[in-house]
Design brief:
It catalyses: Preferential cleavage: (Ac)2-L-Lys-D-Ala-|-D-Ala. Also transpeptidation of peptidyl-alanyl moieties that are N-acyl substituents of D-alanine. Removes C-terminal D-alanyl residues from sugar-peptide cell wall precursors. The chain is of the alpha+beta class. It is built from ten helices and 20 strands. α4 packs antiparallel against α5. The longest helix has 20 residues. The protein is elongated and about 100 Å long.
């Protein structure tokens, strides 16, 4: 009975914990003002928790252009070695628009091509990287889509590693502002290669050449946001005729990590719209959201135990056990607006059947924001209670009437 109860509670608490970290379950915080934005879709996200702080059409599916390349970069860092030698294919060399102008048959360090792709958004470098890491472009796209699902981006579909407008049998190359922000959050806070990601995307300029020393290049960072606001961390621009101007960027100030994602943020000649929207959203986050400690000491009852042996040995006495949290965080902080309040719910089993061991799961304490679970603590038994058994009863009778 005890094992069944513990198993059921473990499943319940696992699901609650899953909901806590699942990005798809986070709702936009209520905004106290409506921002005028150029972007048709936009998101401001708390980079630490993934909670959306402000949203405009956050779930509408749209082309993402070269903001795609943040996913290409993180996959190359996680699955490749910067010192790998990449042989350029004819297909990679044929990529249009923004190019490094690499040639079929040339060899480059993978790490050098990563700078080319991210600083100047070279489409040919992106394809060479994808073919090296994934074998083929479709093979790499499969890796991109698998990673997107892993991090909770269920409205995103990748076809190319560079973001050029494309379509395959499963759909159009596209994402949502919410998903794009989630990808950036993964890249800068969750990936085991996040430091390398930040180093590359924050570099102002970088020089390299092919492995034979026949050609040399210097690439400069086109992410102007890096010099627009204090604490700017990273970002990637994008543009195609279908996508319009796009941008995803991150900033860190006073313990706050903010991410902005913009899709369809104007078309030529409105190149600067993405910068004004980004600053407006970042400033909104800095002005309206601060960290507050929401920890509350829970009042945990003593729980009655059926079929338990009292300390006195008198079966007429009720047996109760003390409860405890499996872990405590007296500095539990969340990024909140002035009007937002966290609700705390305690869910405890009505009773439990002996035997009970210390650490047996018996409930949970949940913190909710906007009706969504944002933190779960498990509640467990703080002591053990032995069960009344036939053997215990016989021993009791023996000691009372025979000895």
């Amino acid at each position: 009975m005890k094992k069944l109860l513990a198993f059921s509670l473990a499943i319940f608490l696992f699901l609650q914990l899953f909901l806590t970290v699942s990005p798809t379950e986070v709702l936009a915080a209520p905004a106290d003002e409506v921002l005028t934005l150029h972007a048709q879709s936009a998101v401001l996200m708390d980079g630490d928790t993934g909670r959306i702080l402000y949203a405009k059409n956050a779930g509408e599916v749209r082309p993402m252009a070269s903001t795609t390349k943040i996913m290409t970069l993180i996959l190359a860092l996680e699955n490749g070695n910067p010192d790998d030698l990449v042989t350029v294919s004819a297909y990679a060399a044929s990529m249009p628009d923004v190019q490094l102008h690499i040639r079929a048959g040339e060899k480059y360090r993978l790490g050098d091509l990563l700078y080319s792709m991210m600083l100047e958004s070279h489409n040919d470098a992106a394809v060479a990287i994808a073919e090296h890491v994934g074998g083929t472009v479709p093979g790499f796209a499969a890796l991109m889509n698998a990673k997107a699902r892993d991090i909770g981006c269920y409205s995103t579909h990748y076809v190319t590693p560079n973001g050029l407008d494309a379509e395959d049998g499963n759909g159009v190359h596209s994402t949502t502002a919410a998903d794009l922000a989630r990808v950036m959050r993964y890249c800068i806070t969750l990936s085991p290669r996040r430091e390398e990601f930040l180093k590359i995307t924050r570099t102002d300029s970088y020089s390299f050449g092919d492995t034979e020393g026949l050609r040399s290049f210097t690439v400069g960072n086109k992410n102007a946001f890096l010099h627009m606001m204090e604490g700017a961390l990273s970002g990637k621009t994008g543009f195609t005729g279908n996508a319009g101007y796009c941008y995803v960027g991150a900033l860190r100030q006073e313990e706050r990590t903010l991410i902005v994602a913009l899709l369809a943020c104007g078309w030529p000649n409105n190149r600067s719209y993405k910068w004004s929207d980004t600053r407006k959203l970042m400033n909104y986050g800095l002005e309206h959201f601060t960290y507050r400690n929401v920890w509350q000491e829970p009042k945990l009852p003593e729980l009655p135990v059926k079929n338990g042996i009292p300390d006195s040995g008198n079966l007429e006495e009720e047996v109760r056990i003390r409860l405890r949290l499996s872990s405590e965080e007296p500095d539990l902080k969340f990024l909140l607006s002035e009007d937002e309040q966290v609700q705390v719910e305690t869910h405890i089993s009505q009773e439990v059947t002996a035997p009970v061991e210390p650490g047996t799961l018996l409930g949970s304490v949940r913190y909710l924001l906007d009706g969504q679970v944002v933190k779960v603590y498990t509640v467990e038994a703080a002591e053990d209670v032995e069960a009344v058994t036939l053997g215990w009863c016989l021993e009791k009778l023996w000691r009372k009437y025979i000895l």
